[in-house]
């Protein structure tokens, strides 16, 4: 089946970007739920949906319910919903599908693997969408919906999804934090952060051509302890940065020496 | 002055990409030096320069000598060169300019801030080039050369350059290692690494719009200890990954709580 009447539960970054793309694809969003009146109103203005701030006001007239709230709140919300045989999905990387079984007999996962921003709109068609369904029909219906939004739709189990989410924490959250540490270090030298932009873009771009194993460079890979010591000396007044520099460098050195010995 | 006759000392990634752009800009590379015959030949074939494998064979007829070798070797090579008043520069982020003072009375630094690959050619015009000169004339001559290659040429002191290099290690080497860890975690789940490509590209792309402070997301930022514990449980069999996950998450949590209390 094709879903045309949707209720969005949540009004954060993922919900906002989902609302945009669903409206663009001619879907009707009946309601948006958020505990915060302001967030509900905001998302309502994008999607044309009725804003609701109480779970009890959620309509039973939709054919798809998308729960897109912080991981911790999914279970609580699922327990408050009674959707009978209407399909309910969540959009989380780390929450097991079966958490939704209290809300309906039909449930699934619709996890778009991307870092979202409320304001910065991105092309949805490239985003991998990880699908899981409580039965084959649900799975197939969610694949149909996924393909309306993206070229890259994949069947992914709850366990695989959890690994994907951990990998994403490293590849995205932790990378961004590395940029942030870089930005602070430049402040010590009164150099503008924009000097790093071409380097950051090229580093990310390389992985589309080569596995990151082949793109690794730097003093830790080369075993250049003299340069690493210079860097550590400069970070003397910044113990947390110094520690993380040491820890990651040590891991890089041991990782590549293990690979050589294989 | 404009430099037209150049000797390249070194045949690694930086030297190779410099050779390409210099030839493209109609510069004559007289010689390329590498201790390895193969590397010297390889770079000679790109640049049309004479390959030499002995320092004593380096000509005195050039007007610029670019030392582009591993950091540790720069001092040794500078001690072996006697270039009188010919300009000699190195391309390193971490080596002080004055290391070159034994080779000539005119010396400087020409540090292109980018991650280079021997094979993947990149547009040089966007690369920030950090310039330092032993005197104002050298500085101004190097700026002229820099501007022939790139739109972004900056005067940067040895101390600033060292900070820039540390920042680059975080923003590029360490980010790439985060991608690599992500790739390995996906292997545990039998998921192809290409699933992370749109996420990695978008994470890098965000910094051109926002400071990375504003782009930080993820369980550690949210203080979502339940999700972090799930991730750590999944990494149980991989102690190094588990440690680095813990260390970086702890730093993110403490960093953002300090910012809030400011």
Number of helices of chain A: 10
Largest sheet of chain A: 8 strands, mixed
- Structure summary, number of beta strands of chain A: 8
What structural class do the secondary elements of chain A suggest?
alpha/beta
Identify the overall geometry of chain A.
elongated
Distance between the termini of chain A: 51 Å
- The proportion of residues in beta strands of chain A is 5-15%
Biggest β-sheet: strands ordered side by side in the sheet of chain A: 3-2-1-4-5-6-7-8
List the secondary-structure elements of chain A in sequence, H or E: EHEHEEHEEEHEHHHHHH
Mean pLDDT of chain A: 95
Oligomerization status of the protein chains: homodimer
Largest interface: A-B, 91 and 91 residues
Radius of gyration of chain A, in Å, reads 22 Å
Q: Which ranges of chain A are low-confidence, i.e. pLDDT below 50, for 5 or more consecutive residues?
A: none
Quick overview:
The structure is a homodimer of 262-residue chains. Chain A is α/β, with parallel strands linked by helices and 262 residues long. Chain A contains 10 helices and 8 strands.
Helices and strands, with pairings:
2 copies of one chain form a homodimer.
Chain A: E1 5-9, H1 13-24, E2 28-33, H2 37-47, E3 50-52, E4 64-67, H3 71-80, E5 87-90, E6 107-112, E7 129-133, H4 136-149, E8 153-155, H5 158-188, H6 197-206, H7 212-215, H8 219-222, H9 225-234, H10 239-261
Parallel strand pairs in A: 1-2, 1-4, 2-3, 4-5, 5-6, 7-8
Antiparallel strand pairs in A: 6-7
């Amino acid at each position: 089946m094709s879903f045309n009447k949707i209720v969005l539960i949540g009004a954060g970054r993922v919900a906002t970007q989902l609302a945009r793309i669903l409206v663009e694809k001619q879907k009707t969003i009946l309601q948006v739920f958020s505990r915060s009146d302001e967030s509900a109103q905001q998302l309502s203005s994008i999607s044309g949906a009725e804003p609701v701030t109480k779970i009890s006001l959620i309509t039973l007239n939709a054919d798809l319910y998308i729960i897109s709230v912080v991981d911790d709140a999914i279970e609580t919300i699922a327990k408050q919903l009674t959707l009978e045989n209407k399909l309910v999905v969540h959009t989380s990387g780390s929450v097991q599908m079966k958490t939704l079984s209290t809300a309906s007999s039909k449930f699934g996962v619709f996890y778009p693997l991307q870092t979202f921003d409320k304001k910065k709109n991105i092309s949805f068609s490239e985003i991998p969408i990880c699908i899981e369904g409580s039965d084959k029909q649900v799975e197939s219906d969610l694949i149909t919906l996924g393909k309306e939004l993206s070229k890259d739709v994949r069947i992914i189990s709850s366990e695989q999804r959890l690994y994907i989410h951990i990998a994403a924490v490293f590849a995205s959250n932790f990378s961004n934090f590395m940029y942030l540490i870089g930005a602070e270090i430049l402040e010590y030298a009164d150099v503008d952060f924009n000097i790093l932009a071409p380097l950051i873009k090229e580093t990310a771009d390389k992985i589309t051509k080569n596995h990151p194993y082949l793109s690794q460079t730097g003093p830790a890979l080369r075993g250049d302890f003299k340069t690493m010591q210079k860097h550590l000396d400069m970070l003397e007044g910044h113990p947390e940065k110094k520690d993380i520099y040491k820890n990651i460098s040590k891991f890089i050195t041991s990782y590549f020496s293990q690979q050589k010995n294989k």
